[in-house]
Structure formats: C-alpha cells, structure tokens
Specification:
alpha/beta; 4-stranded antiparallel beta sheet; globular; binds iron/sulfur cluster
C-alpha cells in the first residue's frame, strides 16, 4: 500500500536532536570545542492514521528521544514534526497545551508515572481536569468509565486506592487509562510492557490492541524487543545510532530483512521451539560513541559484510527490491553498490 499524505497523522522530516556534552570550567576556559551527542541524526518517517508504528533498536539507538520529540517534550535541534498537517514548531504555547490532549504517552515505569500521593482515580483524571472543562461529578464519571474500559474493576472501589495498593498489571492499566481519558488520537507508548510481569504482558498488549480499535487510536510503539513488536505493530522502523536503518511493513521487514543490523536483531529473537538451537546473539562489538560516530555507514565496525565503500560513504534510505514501502540504508542491499555484496 503506497502512502497517501492525507492518511498521515505524523510526518517526521529530517529530524535531529543533539545534546551538548557537559564541559568542566577548565575546558570552557581553554576553549575546548563543544561536543554533541547526536542522539537523533536526520531521521524521517511517517505514521499513518490508525496504525501501530513501531520504533525498535538497541538501547542508545535514539528511539526514545524520537518519541519525546514527537510529543514535544524535547525541542528538535533541526527538522520538522508535522501533526495532522500542521508543523508543531509553529504552535503557540497555548496551542501546544491543547495539543497535549490529542497526543498522550504511556511510559515504561508505571510506578514512576503515577503520583504516589494521589489516589488512582484522581491521577487518571488529572489530564481530564486540565484539558476538559467539567464538574467534579462529570470528571469522576469519565474516569470510572475509562477505568472499566481498561479492566480496572470495580472502578468505584479502585478509584480511591493509592498506586502502591495496586498490582503491577493494575498500575500499568491505570497509566493506560490516564492516557486515554482525554480521548487522544495518538499515543506514544515507550516500552509500555517492559516492566510488567511476564504473565500479564500478552494481556496488556491485547488490551492495547482492543483499545486502539474502540477509540480509533494510532500508536507510536517504542520497543527494544522485536518479538513484542511483531505482536502489535503494522509497520516498523529499525534505528541504529541515531539513524533509521530500515523501515517498512512489519511482514516485509521480518520476512526479508535487508539491513544486516535488522537481520542480527531478528536472529537474536528467541523462538518457542526447543529444537531450534541456532546461536542467538546481537552483532559483535559495542555500539560506537554517538559523540563521534563512525564515518560512512555507522554500522560498519559491527557489520559482518562491510566493504571499503561502507567506511567512506554514508548510505541513504532506498527502496528494497523496488518496493517503495520497504526502505533500507545499506550500500550492499540497495542502490549502486549491490554488486560488491559478498556471495553467500
Ligand atoms: Fe553493512 Fe555496508 Fe550495509 Fe552498512 S552499508 S550495513 S556496513 S554492508
């Protein structure tokens, strides 16, 4: 399916986020040049309305920073984020405040996300109080309704509990309810089940899928876990060291990964088959320093098929086998240097 621009709820264009490295006083006085951590370095992608778009990669890939930039919790260094056809950089503070009710977030750690001194019902209704003019009784009704939707029942009793009185799964449901209570269009879910007990992870994912349908939601789903992404995502972007390595429909990327980094990540996903004794490991070597990333392709120091050109020229995202919806940034798998690919 090709992109129709009007299907996009989010368009990210040439996005960069560089964080300054802290210098000590002596370095400043001696004029040592400022260094920057290139957390996100020229990333572009779109999210279609109604889909689950996954962003995956190892820790340090920049995926969480992208999520925070989309939510405008961070200011980009360069680039644009278009939400519903409007550039977020043109929003006034008041327009951004109103936008918060249309974009919500689910963070990884529900304990850290919920105010320990606030009763669960009040915590869930906090955003509603800010964004939607309402009486206390209207707010309570809306909160109890959303609590029922996410399985926090009986809502009337749980409303007055404090976070520490709930189970881990219930706390994560409360965080989901808080995100939904203002009826947003987009939810950025950053490792939303990573801290949940293994026994409730599938239940939480099923809940998120059901809520997406009931509330016409779009998700930006950030995860380090490709097995989880496979369960819920429609399309996926694989990030490496601040760059997009590969992007496409989940089926295409998982069935025919084009980038050697994606191949390695997929090979490391455990399969529920005791007869499968393949060695599962991530690419060898450390992730390079994002302050001074490698020349050419950033993956070349870890890539098993790297050639000379990989150290010299940075690859661009290009279609894989002519498929405009499946892109990879690899000289040897797309573009002009495919003839250099070592034979299998
Ligand atoms: Fe590996 Fe070269 Fe492709 Fe980078 S461009 S992923 S180093 S083969």
């Amino acid at each position: 399916m090709s992109d129709n621009i009007h299907d996009h709820i989010i368009e990210v264009r040439d996005l960069k986020k560089y964080f300054p490295v802290k210098r000590d006083l002596l370095s400043s006085l001696m004029g040592v040049p400022q260094q920057w951590v290139r957390a996100v370095d020229d990333v572009s992608f779109t999210i279609r309305r109604g889909e689950v778009f996954g962003l995956a990669g190892e820790s340090g890939s920049g995926k969480t920073t992208v999520g925070r930039l989309v939510l405008r919790l961070l200011e980009p260094s360069e680039g644009q984020i278009i939400f519903d056809d409007a550039d977020l950089s043109t929003y006034s503070p008041e327009a951004l405040r109103q936008l918060r009710s249309r974009m919500q977030v689910i963070f990884q750690d529900p304990f850290a996300s919920l105010n320990p001194r606030m009763r669960i019902g009040e915590g869930i209704g906090h955003g509603y109080k800010i964004h939607i003019p309402s009486s206390a009784s209207e707010r309570r009704k809306a909160v109890e309704e959303i609590m029922e939707h996410v399985g926090l029942t009986p809502a009337a009793q749980l409303y007055n509990k404090f976070p520490h009185q709930l189970s881990g799964g219930q706390r994560q449901r409360a965080v989901i309810a808080r995100a939904l209570v203002t009826r947003p269009e987009l939810i950025v879910a950053d490792e939303p089940i990573a801290m949940a007990d293994v026994s409730v992870r599938a239940l939480l994912l099923d809940l998120m899928i059901r809520l997406k349908q009931e509330f016409n939601l779009t998700y930006l789903f950030i995860t380090h876990d490709l097995a989880t992404a496979k369960y819920i995502c429609d399309r996926i972007g694989i990030m490496y060291l601040g760059k997009m390595a590969e992007i496409g429909d989940l089926h295409d990327v998982y069935k025919s990964p084009a980038h050697p980094y994606t191949e390695a990540l997929l090979a490391a996903v455990p399969v529920p088959d005791p007869t499968d004794r393949r060695e599962k490991h991530l690419p060898t070597g450390e992730i390079p320093n994002p302050i001074n990333p490698p020349s050419g392709c950033r993956f070349h120091p870890r890539c098993p098929i790297a050639q000379q050109v990989c150290q010299e020229i940075e690859p661009e995202l290009r279609p894989v086998e002519g498929n405009p919806d499946h892109l990879a940034s690899c000289h040897l798998r797309t573009g002009d240097y495919q003839h250099l690919a070592p034979s299998a």
